[in-house]
Amino acid sequence: MPRIAAAGGLPTAGETNRLLALFNAGSHAELERSARLLIERCPNSGFAWKMLGVSLQLQGKEGLQALQMAADLLPDEASSHSNLGCALRELGRLDDALASYRRALTIKRNHREALIGLGDVQRDLGNAKDAQASYRRALAINPNHAEAHNNLGNALRDLGHLDDAVASYRRALSIKSDYVEAHSNLGTALRELGQLADAVSSHERALVVKPDFVRAHIGLGNALLDLGQLPDAVASYRRAVAIKSDDAQLHIILGRTLQQIGLWDDSLLSYHQALAIEPDLCGAHDGLGTTLINLGRATDAVASYRRALEIKPDSAGILHNLGAALETLGQVDEAATCFQEAYELGLTGDKLLKALLLPPIMGTAEEVLRSRAKCEQNVDELIEAPVLIEDPLTQVGRTNFFLAYHGCNDRDLQVKIAKLYEKSCPALLYQSPHCASPRSNAQAKIRVGFLSKFVQLHSVSRCYGGIVEALARSDSCEVALISTTDTEVPDFVDGYPNFVGERVHLPFNLAKARAIVSALQLDVLCYLDIGMEPFSYFMAFARLARIQCVLGGHPVTTGIGNIDCFLSVDSMESEFADGHYSEKLVRFRTVNSYFERPPLPTRFKTREELGFPTRGQIYMCPMKLQKIHPEFDEAMQRILEMDANGVVVLFQDHQIPCWHTMLAQRFEKTISAEVRNRILFLPWIFDYADFVSANLVADVVLDPFHFGIGTTLIATFAVGTPIVTKPGEFLRGRVGLGFCKMLDLQECVADSTEEYARLAVDIATDPVLRQRIQAKILANGGAIYQNLQPVDELIGFFDGAIKGLVT
């Protein structure tokens, strides 16, 4: 039986061996209990204090006090100082930890664990070069120390020596094949090298060994995210959160990824959970603001960004986000201030954002012209003194979208804006190598790519989906459908269900996307829309095909030099239209779109069921509110003056509810109080069958001035509801005219605002006239629906365009 030491004496050999045996067996709780009992008998035993401290550390408890006692009682023992350094590092006391490790190495120059610990602290302090040297010293003592190889890999990765880091991680794994941390670190380095599939495999191997290793779940999510496999990335992050639900940063990572796939409600929950853990977490308030913006809660988003700025007032990124939110709310002066401050803090692209600011909802006609003139002045100044940016997609991230609604000729200003981007980012003007040489085989099929973000069910896919699908089935073309939209995301509704060509998914990265499209070696690249979102706009600056053209998904000139042709329709263009485009205007004989006749509901809803007024005439304008030009206000006023029982129905924006309030404030300046209360803003109708019903119960559908009706007419004419249109000068205000020509509805076309109002009231209040027009619409509807004539015209255009390119 071991001898019991006297109080204040030294442990017996048996007691020492028992503690060591418990340590080697991994019985940490029993080791703690036994060490405490031993300390009661031997309070000056440095060994007992050391074993107590180690047992506490290994159980995730704080062992600093015990380890400090051990170092004080064993001042000349290197391992005691090394253990103390480890505890100090875990508490973030890096300078003290550094001193402890150096004390250990003074005592024993080749103490391997102290060298590794010293390297870890040096790396924590940002000194990867010295850390690398410490790890190499440890490996000189023991070349087969897996942890030293792993940690050396970390230091090399910090230094940007990724290939060497990968070699170090692989060496660690050759020594210890189940080394979880090394598998995960290898995955991280491989991801940084762009070897994404191998990165995924490394993280998955780590998780085979340790399924609850949070860092591997995060690393796997990151690699999947880079691969564009967003739902799988979300699943990985969710697993990490389930394992470590009290980690606020994990909730933020998950929230950001949920944003990318449009799961805004889930993202909202993630940020709220992060803030429940850490209420003053700046990143959570910032991310919450972005989610709130996309949930249509711009005012709440502004509050979130302001809270984030209280925590971190010098954050350029948060100032940028706040500026964007204020811009959405129409507070352009405050937005300009935020963008300017963000620019001064280093966000170069915000200089351009400030220059291009325009109110989302137009003010009076005079205010529109003033804001437009200010924008042009800003662009002129920046052309003379441009700021350089590397990536306008991420640094600017938007288009000149609201410019198109002003009712002006945008060509010259669009050209100026494109010139500004060319000067600010010359890399935009990339040219695919194959475009420098003529097309060599005249007999080969024409290789055509159609590019659009909007491959889901959307107005663009409704307009062009049938044509693209028909071209893909033709014998003349090889067709690729190119998009950044991930068709694997939840709730995706395919706008091209019958497409048989090649689908090409692009990353949201201009350089990578250009390389992918370039590799297709296209003869023709046809953008279905340019100007509604930033990716296609900035892609269009590059020369990626021999012929590059754009259809009217966003019916306004691009101003971009590498877009050769704008494909339009003769019946929708004025005789002076060539002067509206920087591109060559190609006038097709037939409407270059294809529409399926929409299915009609088995039962139409009534006015009451739709929330419409049950009495009086309804003049419905089912347009987004940014289309309502101040000159259209006069038409609404005259309609309501002529028809005392009439109401004008507009629809609230489903993403930004405050926009109808902004528009109502303009009406206070432009429309008399006597009739203004008969302009109603009803909730946006999401259900398409309900939207068809709304068209049926409306007496007249109003086509607004300057940027008018588009694919909405497919539902309107399906039920025979008359429209009234006053053609504008530009394509975007003449679509209604084109459809009226197709259906022989000249009685619905006005030459003046007064005639427009009179036609609307006559049709709405005269049942016989209305029924006669409705019958004509229904009888002539075949001219609109399922018309494949545009396919032959497009093939003819593509064929003719490339004939001059054949050697």
Q: How would you portray this structure in words?
A:
By secondary structure, this protein is an alpha/beta fold. It contains 37 helices and 12 strands. Strands 3-2-1-4-5-6-7 form a 7-stranded parallel β-sheet, sandwiched between helices. The protein has a 5-stranded parallel β-sheet with strand order 10-9-8-11-12, covered by helices on one side. β4, α27 (534-539) and β5 (545-550) form a beta-alpha-beta unit. α4 (64-73) runs antiparallel to α5 (78-90), α10 runs antiparallel to α11 and α16 runs antiparallel to α17 (282-294). It is elongated and about 115 Å long. It starts with 12 loop residues before the first helix and ends with a helix. Residues 1-7 have low confidence and may be disordered.
Task: Tell me the strand order in the biggest sheet.
Answer: 3-2-1-4-5-6-7
The general outline is elongated
Number of helices: 37
Q: What integer is the average pLDDT? A: 93
Rounded to an integer in angstroms, the radius of gyration calculated over CA atoms is 34 Å
> How many beta strands in the DSSP annotation?
12
Question: Would you tell me the structural class of the helices and strands?
Answer: alpha/beta
Instruction: Describe the largest sheet.
Output: 7 strands, parallel
How far do the termini sit from each other? 101 Å
